[in-house]
Amino acid sequence: MAARKAVEKELTREMIMDAARDLFAEKDYQQVSMRQIATKLNYSHGAIYYHFKNKAELFYALVKDHFLMLNQRIEEIVDGEASNEEKLRKLYLGYIEFGLTHQNHYEIMFMIKNDEVRNFMSESPMLTYQNFARQVSKLSEKEMSIQEIWSIFISLHGFVSHYLGHVTTFDDVKRAAEFHANMLLRWTSA
Amino acid sequence: MAARKAVEKELTREMIMDAARDLFAEKDYQQVSMRQIATKLNYSHGAIYYHFKNKAELFYALVKDHFLMLNQRIEEIVDGEASNEEKLRKLYLGYIEFGLTHQNHYEIMFMIKNDEVRNFMSESPMLTYQNFARQVSKLSEKEMSIQEIWSIFISLHGFVSHYLGHVTTFDDVKRAAEFHANMLLRWTSA
DNA sequence: TCCTTTAATTAACCAGTGTTCAATTGTAGT
DNA sequence: ACTACAATTGAACACTGGTTAATTAAAGGA
């Protein structure tokens, strides 16, 4: 009975992911439904299943992208022009900014409890942390133990996870973030 | 058609709250249903509505209790016998222990995004933090700014929120928690 | 004893979920 | 023009959820 959309704009994985990304800006994994995504795209919910096996696979595709983004952001900062201390500060702020700019994805990347989703990610969070830790180790004035760096990471995560949901953009807490970053810098300076 | 339970053990608000508490040890607000609570109690789901107006009210009653517990724990530590530094360490560890011992409640107390629940809590989290901050201010060697204390709190929250869901008991990460607490003590020592 | 109050059950309603699948369509290749 | 195929639809399935309301049963007082 049903008509097909003009083929000029066939539904693609990208389009679906974009729509899902948008909905994620407001709600979390459980609250975003396949039907909502389809509605946003003006397609039927069944169509999504032609491009993605199921909900979990769709969201895994998103998460993978975001881990890539975060890793790139870290490298971008480290490869830039600045003193080591300045780079460290940027690293800390960059992490917070990323978390608060992609709040619902940060949640999936580092906070989700749902096993269905977590199984898909496996080692991505750990790899990102290891990358982060290696850079902190290189940039800090004094020799840092693994545990010390872990405390830094935990503290950054604390900042993001606290403001997550209570605040809409990074700029809302930029000054607080800068202060927190400075506090963490005390641990790496001789 | 239906029978009533023997009146020796009438259903009470306490019983319902206990059952809900238990289910919370495994799942979060959205995943715990009124029907599950009722099943656990061997009562029908309708019975709960005789004692609580709705789901949100039931969980608010739980949350209120837990804010009380946390505040008591803080006072307990501060009023105890120990050096100021030792009390601070205990304060930090106590906070983490509380968070990881009552994981799903911690989530509701400090991490929930759901407006339905958040409206019920209003200022409880802030009052708890203010209490915490006052004590840290008293116990630290040097004069601490509001922002510095806030960083400590954020960092503690980070520890809890990271391990939340990845770990079952406080003991699983006791040593890591102790290390983290020591890191935070560096900020308060002269 | 009857009557009222209280407490519990159950069915029902409504709204939503992820997923599957037969049916249908548009389009490109022959 | 015909066909093969990829893409899309929408109904249907099998759930789960919170909440309400009519109904029933027990307990206690008059």
TrEMBL record, chains A, B:
Top-level lineage group: Bacteria
Alphabetical keyword list: DNA-binding, Repressor
PROSITE patterns hit by this protein: HTH_TETR_2
Residue ranges: DNA binding: 33-52
GO molecular function: DNA binding
Keyword Repressor: yes
One Pfam assignment: TetR_N
Domain HTH tetR-type: 10-70
Repressor among keywords: yes
PANTHER family, per the entry: ACREF/ENVCD OPERON REPRESSOR-RELATED, ACREF_ENVCD OPERON REPRESSOR-RELATED
This protein's name: HTH tetR-type domain-containing protein
